[in-house]
Amino acid sequence: MRILSAAADPTALDRAAAYAADGPVAALTAERIREELDAHQFRPEWVWLAEDENGQVLARALWWGRADSERPIALDCLQVRSTVADPVAVATGLLDAGHAAFGTRPMYNISLPADWSTRPELAEAVAWRRDAGLRSGLSREIQRLRYEWTPAAGLPEIGGRLTFREGSDEEFLEAFVRVSAGSLDQATHDELRTKDARQLAEEDIRFYLDCPGERSWWRLAELPDGTLAGLAVPSATPYNRNVGYLGVVPEQRGKGLIDEILGEITRFHASEGAERITATTDTTNVPMAAAFDRAGYQVTEIRMVLEVSETA
Fold first, then answer.
1. Cα Rg for the chain, rounded, in angstroms?
2. What is the model's pTM?
3. Which helix H or strand E contains 126, and what residues bound it?
């Protein structure tokens, strides 16, 4: 078996796209792969193959990034042919080769139907992917609910308890710091074990500034007397408008204010003509999931995220 990147062989991209993936985990089509390559979100050097001695593709791994990314952000697609006796070993070889070339270990996103754990064929397909991720250094697992809003759901009503205004960079930095305290978001909770809240806030702000959304969309949420209640960060992906980031400061939690902040983001995107708004939250963040349900968002999939543990 040999492992190579598509950048090393002019014909490898065609073989990667033509690979007839089998197994229950949804695979990208050749058309979608070509679209991502044209958008510079897949790159030849981010596409890796495992082949046998006859040149038959045994497995492929495709990493994704934004058009301006220097390195890939996430592993978007990993398949191993069902006839391979040890899929964990082959997948681990692909991941290790890619990670060594990138100089980093991007997260791995696995999109799954909501009932995946009760379907034996899917549970088995997830199991070998988990094992390969663990062996290649992706030791932290987070399961996230992916939500979607469409105009058919209607707009959330205006609550009237909060006002929203633009804020300075320093005000947003302080707001990010304050809403991180006691957060039920698993990644936030884990990262605060190894860095202080201000450092994490600075990283979060840089991330959202790099997203396709505009800084001018961001809003601070305040009570009528000007007391900070939280923040709303409408954002976007390369494909859809997105909820981005939202939160309530600890002393104002438990009052239903998250509904008003989510409603503000939803109404903003809808006013801009959005036909679809996506959002995610951890399966363990029950209050946030309930807020999405109340606002008319529907669960479309579970996204399993495997990534490097900050505490490793």
1. 21
2. 0.81
3. helix 120-135
